Amino acid sequence: IEPTFENMDSSLEEAAAIHGVPTFWRSLRITLGLAFPNIFAAFLFSLVHGITSLEVPLFIGVRASIYTVSSQIYTSLQESLVPDYGYASALAILIAIIAAALVFCYQRMTSVGRSYQTIRGKGYTKNRIRLGAWLWPASAGVVAVALAAALPIFALFWASIFKRVIGPTQWRQAWDLLTLSQYSQVWHTPAIMQATVNSIIVASVSATLVCLLALSIAWHLERVKSVTARVADLLATVPLAIPGIVMGSAVLFAYVRLPLPIYGTIWLMVVALVPLFLPFGVRYVHGGMISISRELEDSARVLGVSHRMVVARILVPLLKGPLLAAWFFTFLIAVRELDASILLYGPHSEVISTILFDYWNDGGTGTVAAFGLLVAAGAVVISGVAMKVLGKSPYGN
Questions:
Q1: Is 327 exposed, middle or buried (0-12, 13-18, 19+ CB in 10 A)?
Q2: I need a labelling partner for 122 at 20 to 30 A (CA). Which of 111, 202, 245, 318 fits?
Q3: What's the CA gap between 244 and 339, in Å, rounded?
């Protein structure tokens, strides 16, 4: 949602202020109104991801006999004597129908794209709003979010520095059990280092391909506005509703029978992850494309600029923020992706998520915590780089 607010022209709110509209109603009717397509897209992602997520239901829910759609699909494929591909596919199709209905609502909402355009042929300004009496409630909300993010990280750190798992009340035993051997094991285990390299390669290639495909689909969807473009957008969004475990099984089932030399390699994971994450890229880039007026491209074409140069010199610079956000977001979620990778990795194509899963099953809680903490630290660094780069985008501060 943030790139939409970055692109927001404060003159629209100033015009409402001149007519005496209070700050609350200006923010509600103008700011949130213009950002509503991206807000709905975020809601769509969160809803479908909550339905299809596997990690938490697998590690917590299954042990308590509480099943979700994703964990039910996993058990039907992995814990049955004979994998029930038909049952798993039927569950996935059911979710796909629900997601398709939500995507149709999104397309109807954004069909009048001009209503949400905030970047036009003239300059625009941005102003900060003083929170006033809302300062302390807003600060409390920020602190609550920070604590919610910090507590799991602290739990990882606690588990990584002891020889065995102990509770906070067992502080008397803490000194005798204190150790850093788990971190040493992470750095001196070739399989973990190879999995890290594989994850970086898979995530980088997947993020790049996702951004290129998303730019093409978003441009055709917003500029061409043909039935073909909307069908392509719908097809690109449908994988959002397909659990990663089902996508992985589908790719595995297909490529076992195809004579291609990528079975058991990291490139088979790329084949599964690109369509799996393409919906995120399309929504990121399309949200930015909606805010760009077509008159900028028309003016360039009147001057004889080729289509390729229009894309390279106008669209890509203006879409730098959404494109980079899509790349970093795809990279980060691809690094930790488990659902599809758990079915596709081979003896020499382990990635971070699968190596963590194997260590967890083998009882290596301390190693899992240490490696997970290092991965989280790397994600923080990458996120900091992303925010630094996005802060220098054409619409940034």
A1: buried
A2: 111
A3: 5
10 Å CB burial of residue 155 (0-12, 13-18, 19+) is middle
Q: pTM for the whole thing?
A: 0.70
Q: What is the DSSP string of 11-69?
A: HHHHHHHHTT--HHHHIIIIIHHHHHHHHHHHHHHHHHHHHH--HHIIIIIGGGT---H
From first CA to last CA, the distance across the chain in angstroms is 16
The residue-averaged pLDDT of 24-51 equals 78
Q: Where are the alpha helices (DSSP H) in 189-337?
A: 190-219, 227-237, 244-255, 266-290, 295-302, 307-310, 316-318, 320-335
Q: How far apart are CA 1 and CA 12, in angstroms?
A: 18
* DSSP conformational letter for 332: H
| Nearest in space to 288 (alpha carbons), one of 182, 363, 178, 211 | 211
Q: How many residues appear in the chain?
A: 397
Give just the sign of the alpha carbon dihedral 385, 386, 388, 394: positive
Euclidean distance between CA atoms 96 and 239, whole angstroms: 8
DSSP three-state, residue 178:
strand
Q: Is-contact 163 177, C-beta < 8 A?
A: yes
* 53-85 per-position pLDDT tens digit: 777 887 788 778 888 887 888 788 766 677 777
